[in-house]
Amino acid sequence: MSATAPLAGQLALVTGASRGIGRAVAERLAADGAVVVGTSRSAEGAATIDQLLAGSDGFGLVLDSCDAQALPVALADIRQRAGAHPSILVNNAGITRDTLLLRLGEAAWQEVLETNLSAVYRMCRAVARQMLTSRYGRIINISSVVGSAGNPGQSNYAASKAGLEGFSRAVALELGPRGITVNSVAPGYIDTDMTRTMPPQAAASLRERIPLRRLGKPEEVAAVVAFLAGAGGAYITGATLHVNGGLYL
Ligand code: NDP
Questions:
Q1: Could you tell me if the CB of 41 is within 6 A of ligand 1?
Q2: Fewest CB atoms within 10 Å of the CB: 2, 18, 23, 248?
């Protein structure tokens, strides 16, 4: 990778990089010259990430974002293997457990809030420590259009993503004076495993509601993440960038 690549010299940590948007983000940041470490809950997922990043110094790591005790061990492992601390953090790992409010049990509520919000708080707190010392960092949290627009059957998910955006704004205010930017990227409907379970009828009527008349591609979200991670994003913090084909304005 040429030293003039936009992200040369940066170490990027991307959670949930085995599939979908996280995978596209990992590929794009690596193509832009960053050394990328991508996480998955499984050894198979980590091996997929290894293959994805073959030919670069990046690698896959088994880390369940919800495992608070594994986090410091994983960060020490990254430090040892990559010889650096992450200067870019992309909190992408996320889940849905959709159902209407009256059927929404504690477990589905907790699981979504834990994965999509509490794990991000823990990751940011752990990674920001070193960013503060080096007075540089880029934190990018993957939110959702649902955090702004709401969606029936997704009250747990909407709450987690709206919370994530509020969290990002507060942390942006705290960390800005030390050269660290914190932003959210809020995708609309993107063609990944998460949306492929939609019945064909529902997918067709959804497309009709999107002004650009199609689902987004993971690469189109990754391009915005790369922008925020690179020189173009230097003066943007506390923002939510919407990538939704005009679905929510
Ligand atoms: P996918 O379901 O396709 O992939 C999810 C990824 O997250 C996988 O790599 C999975 O890894 C990882 N993951 C899930 N839970 C954990 C965990 N506890 N620890 C570590 N990794 C985990 O999702 P998408 O790519 O569609 O979504 C990515 C992000 O984008 C999510 O935050 C989602 O909310 C958001 N988003 C997606 C939209 C869409 O339309 N697809 C729209 C708006 C937002 P593995 O299974 O290997 O462990």
A1: yes
A2: 2
